[in-house]
């Protein structure tokens, strides 16, 4: 292992955004809950079963493109909605309409609360830069660039593969490996030469499916065993735990 906790041959680091670099995963979970609870309440009445911001978030929406998350959770409740269009307004009861509704809530919460990075992960990304490793952010979020700018860390990354880029290139989102593979390609490395850093179960599956050189699970919510089961080679509470490894 190197001083970055990496095996020999790793030349690039591919970082997820929400929950790995920035403290925005909890914001997303709260936004999903607010949106789904309002939808379920209007559909089922006062006795509706609420969206669980931990279990449902982890199982059905975390790390996925927005529309995929809507479909996944609704399917878990046996609910089917019209697909709609990506430009559906937030009041539309369609897959894309609910996604638009959730995004509006997220943007309002970010505007209100701001964006805080995880300082340990920022230290790690800076150490990777100083060691000459290539660096990319790989996120399902269409708001990725705005979040990076708000957190003051955009300059740490050479490549950004986010929801906007994925749509432009027709890349399927996590748990498919395509967005991570695109980041490795854009950095000029093979998958086996890249390490993936993720906190979502869907991201673990994407890392495993892409045959990357190392898949690191970042456990912020006490799900270390689930991260390992879904593909993590090792699990840490924060990335700066890897900085003390001896060469």
From TrEMBL:
Pfam families: Hydrolase (PF00702). Its EC number is 5.4.2.6. Its cofactor is Mg(2+). GO terms for molecular function: beta-phosphoglucomutase activity; metal ion binding. Belongs to the HAD-like hydrolase superfamily. CbbY/CbbZ/Gph/YieH family. It catalyses: beta-D-glucose 1-phosphate = beta-D-glucose 6-phosphate. InterPro entries: B-phosphoglucomutase_hydrolase, Beta-PGM-like, HAD-like_sf, HAD-SF_hydro_IA, HAD_sf, PGP-like_dom2. The lineage of its organism: Bacteria, Bacillati, Actinomycetota, Actinomycetes, Kitasatosporales. Transmembrane segments: none annotated. It comes from the Bacteria. It is an enzyme of class 5 (isomerase). The keyword Kinase does not apply. This is Beta-phosphoglucomutase. Keywords: Carbohydrate metabolism, Isomerase, Magnesium, Metal-binding, Phosphoprotein.
